[in-house]
Amino acid sequence: MVIAIHRAVEQQAAMRGESPAYVDGSRTLTYRELNGRANALARALIGSGFKRGSVAAVRMARAADLVVTLPAVLKAGGAYMWADHDDASWPRGVSIVEKESAGSGRCLAVDLTRMLSEDVPPGANLPILTRATDVACVLRDRDGSPAVLVPHSTITALPQRQVPRDVQWKGENGALDLWLALMTGATVIPVEAPAHTVAA
After folding, report:
1. Measured distance CA(85)–CA(88) in Å, rounded
2. Rounded to whole angstroms, how far apart are CA atoms 75 and 11?
3. Distance of CA 120 to the CA centre of its chain
4. Cα radius of gyration (the chain)
5. Which fold, 5-190?
6. pLDDT for 17
7. Measuring CA to CA, which residue among 59, 6, 54 is closest to residue 200?
8. Residues 6+ apart with CB under 8 A from 27
9. Fewer Cβ within 10 Å of end Cβ, the chain: N or C?
10. Across the chain, what does the average pLDDT equal?
11. What percent of the chain stands above pLDDT 70?
């Protein structure tokens, strides 16, 4: 049975909650902390106007806060499009984009800075039903425009047999290397992305 990406991460949190999910020079997140904070953030996004099927345009650095934000977006029933924090063409933080009709939409900027910095109590997993065919990630073209819609099933179908215990997160387009690590219970360790990589 194919499940949504965040459900696979939730399973890892249930099985190995105290194992490190993310480690950098200044911060460590266990799977329990990651999942609990993502649940709380998902509820905050919904309270800010995020609806199922919305797209969150995320402009954040490749760090612990992003590792919490991306699953939060999926838990809230939407998809994300990620731009590195140096991309000044996007507003900083998270912008919610809702497609209202074929040619129109609305954009609502959400400042998650305070929420991410607070020691919020972890929340329970959200009951939102996400289908494997729902879009999880919008990959950008080199000019920054949306290019490819990636469903949950495409990412959860990535080969997982040879995933090492420590996975280098290079920030390739869509953060697919991040998901491969988190779906298998590995530890994510951010490394410098190659100069030619477009982080989205």
Report:
1. 7
2. 13
3. 19
4. 16
5. Rossmann fold (3.40.50)
6. 93
7. 59
8. 63, 64
9. N
10. 81
11. 78
